[in-house]
Structures are given as C-alpha cells and as structure tokens.
Write a structure and sequence with these properties.
It is an enzyme of class 1 (oxidoreductase). By secondary structure, the chain is of the alpha/beta class. It contains 7 helices and 7 strands. It has a single domain (2-194), classed as Rossmann fold (3-Layer(aba) Sandwich), CATH 3.40.50. The radius of gyration is 17 Å and the shape is globular. It starts with a strand and ends with a helix.
C-alpha cells in the first residue's frame, strides 16, 4: 500500500510536521501489510503552487507531489490553523490538484494550533472541503493544540484511533489505478488529427 502525507507547516521544525509523522507511524503500525510512505512538504512547494495559479501549469516538483497524492491508497492531510481555518498554502495545494484525485481516497484530516478554541476548524472547514472532493474521510480527526504536547496520553490516544481507522479504510479500498499522464503536446496532436 502507498500512503501520502501532506503537511503544511511553515517552520522547521514544526508542530504540524511532528503531528504528521506521528499519524504516519500510527497508520503504518495498524496496517496489515507493508506501507510505502511519501511526505509532501508544502512549504517547499509554495512558489510552484503560486506559479501554477498564474500560469495554469505545474512545475516539476509540484507535478511530482500531485502524482504522489494521486497514486496513494490513503492520504494524511495536516495543516496549521490560522484565523479559525486551514492555511492558505494548504488550501492552495488542493485547489491546484485535479478535482477527481481524491475521489474515493481514504483520508485522515488533522491540524495544529496554539489554542484548543480552533479545534472545530477540522469539522467546519477541513471535513467539508474533503467531502466536496469526494474523499472518504476517517471518522476521527486529530487536533493538537500547544498544550496537548504536554498531555501526551490524550493526544496519543486520538492519534492511535485515527491511524487505526485510516489503516482499515485503506485495507478495504480497491488499489489505486496506475494512470498514464498524457503529455500536453500529445493531447494537442490528438486534437489536430480529429479536425
């Protein structure tokens, strides 16, 4: 199985990346088979994402990240919460992803923030976005406020439950199809033959 983890932390190190890594570990631990993991750090793709918006074309690194998510059997998506919602960088990545990419894909959503007051952002912002993209979102989402890192027992329990749910969803999903991306020049050539 292939597991993609998209993390939108802006600093290094970041609590968002730490939560991502712990969710990956929990999911891999609960899987009944070998899991190949690829982590997509959105902070490294910020410029490529902006260029994609203004040109309509994904650069090489962004295209590779998009293909990582598309070919995965499951997805972990983690964002910091800013102003009671996901970060702009996080949303922008999913805006430049093909709308069908997440259709039927088991997905675990998670977020980090400075205060527990923003924990409902997972339910009012992230869950609706992933439902719109037709992802199969795991029932347990994980929010880690700054104070949760000191209370590791409670956070560890939520991480373990969410990882187990994602692993179960991945086991019961049909394997991802390997699709060949048709280069733009080849698509144009096919169009000119039709006319």
């Amino acid at each position: 199985m292939k597991l993609a983890a998209v993390t939108a932390g802006l600093t290094q190190p970041s609590a968002t990346r730490l939560l991502t890594d712990r969710l990956v570990e929990a999911t891999v631990r609960e899987a009944d088979e070998r899991v190949e993991v690829q982590v997509v750090e959105l902070r490294d793709l910020a410029t490529d994402i902006a260029h994609n918006f203004v040109t309509g074309f994904a650069g090489k690194a962004l295209r590779a990240a998009q293909e990582t998510v598309a070919s995965a059997d499951g997805l972990i998506a983690v964002t910091p919460i800013f102003t009671a919602s996901y970060s702009g960088l996080f949303k922008s990545f999913f805006d430049v992803l093909d709308p069908e990419t997440l259709s039927g894909k088991p997905t675990l959503i998670a977020a980090t923030g400075g205060t527990p007051r923003h924990s409902l952002a997972l339910e009012h912002a992230l869950r609706p976005m992933f439902a719109y993209l037709h992802a199969i979102v795991a029932p347990t989402s994980v929010y880690a406020a700054a104070e949760d890192w000191g209370n590791d027992e409670g956070l560890a329990g939520r991480i373990g439950r969410a990882g187990a749910e994602l692993a179960a969803l991945m086991r019961h999903r049909a394997p991802a199809k390997e699709e060949r991306l048709v280069p733009f020049a080849e698509q144009l050539a096919a169009l000119s033959r039709e006319t």
